């Protein structure tokens, strides 16, 4: 009798009770019908998540001797090579770039010459803070450049990259990290730092990917020689392949 009363109260609106599966079928059927009527038109244009030379600020952090000595997650030679690739690509494409160090004169030493050579005469913003985002001079430069998209790389991943990336995300910036142009005291430290950033919304990429994303089309003849030149010098096996193809066959990626 109690069960009958509950059923009666549920039908006071005058609408009959439906089995649980029926409204679900109606809902899914409606969604299917709506999807069938949608038309997707592909266009030969790049996605908004790809980086371009004029849509971001590159921030290179603490590529210094003292920081590199304890870096174990990446070979020192490869780290310098990848940092040089990023720096030369950014300089060549005219990317707005911030170079920052920590305790340059008193503890950590100069920034890698592979980076400073790519930006002759550019001032290095020296800090005391481990979190670059807490340095007023760096933030002033970020605001002056005025890009909502930021690309980071540097030493160490778990401290000097995690700090500013999470801080920038919190303030509404789009954040990318060039993972193989970063390093830390162990593989574990680097990988957990990357995990933490990606989980928070950071978009990871690699140094070669960064440069090729800036070039994007080999028909862009104005930057073709520069890009392939950087690849030949710093692009590892890919660069060797370019040298071989051009030397043996005079080959070109462009048409």
From TrEMBL:
Residue intervals of the Isochorismatase-like domain: 57-207
First and last residue of the signal peptide: none
GO molecular function, one term: hydrolase activity
InterPro entries: Hydrolase_YcaC-like, Isochorismatase-like_dom, Isochorismatase-like_sf
Xref: Gene3D superfamilies: Isochorismatase-like (3.40.50.850)
The keyword Hydrolase is annotated on this UniProt entry: yes
Keyword terms: Hydrolase
PANTHER family noted in UniProt: HYDROLASE, HYDROLASE YCAC-RELATED
The protein, known as: Isochorismatase hydrolase
């Amino acid at each position: 009798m109690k069960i009958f009363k509950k059923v009666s109260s549920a039908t006071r609106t005058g609408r009959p009770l439906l089995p649980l599966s029926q409204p679900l079928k109606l809902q899914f059927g409606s969604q299917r019908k709506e999807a069938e009527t949608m038309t997707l038109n592909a266009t030969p244009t790049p996605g908004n998540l790809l980086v371009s030379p004029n849509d971001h600020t590159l921030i290179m952090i603490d590529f210094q001797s003292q920081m590199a000595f304890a870096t174990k997650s990446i070979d020192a030679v490869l780290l310098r090579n990848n940092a040089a690739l990023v720096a030369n690509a950014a300089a060549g494409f005219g990317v707005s770039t911030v170079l920052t160090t920590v305790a340059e004169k008193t503890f950590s030493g100069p920034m890698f010459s592979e980076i400073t050579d790519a930006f002759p005469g550019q001032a290095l913003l020296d800090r005391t803070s481990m979190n670059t985002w807490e340095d007023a001079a760096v933030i002033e430069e970020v605001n002056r450049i005025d890009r909502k998209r930021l690309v980071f790389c540097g030493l160490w991943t778990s401290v000097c990259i995690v700090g500013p990336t999470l801080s920038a995300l919190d303030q509404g910036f789009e954040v990318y990290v060039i993972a193989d142009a970063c390093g830390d005291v162990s593989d574990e430290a680097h990988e957990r730092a990357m995990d933490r950033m990606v989980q928070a919304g950071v978009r990871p990429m690699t140094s070669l990917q960064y440069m090729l994303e800036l070039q994007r089309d080999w028909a862009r003849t104005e930057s073709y020689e520069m890009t392939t030149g950087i690849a030949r010098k710093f692009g590892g096996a890919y660069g060797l392949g370019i040298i071989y193809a051009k030397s043996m066959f005079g080959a070109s990626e462009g048409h």
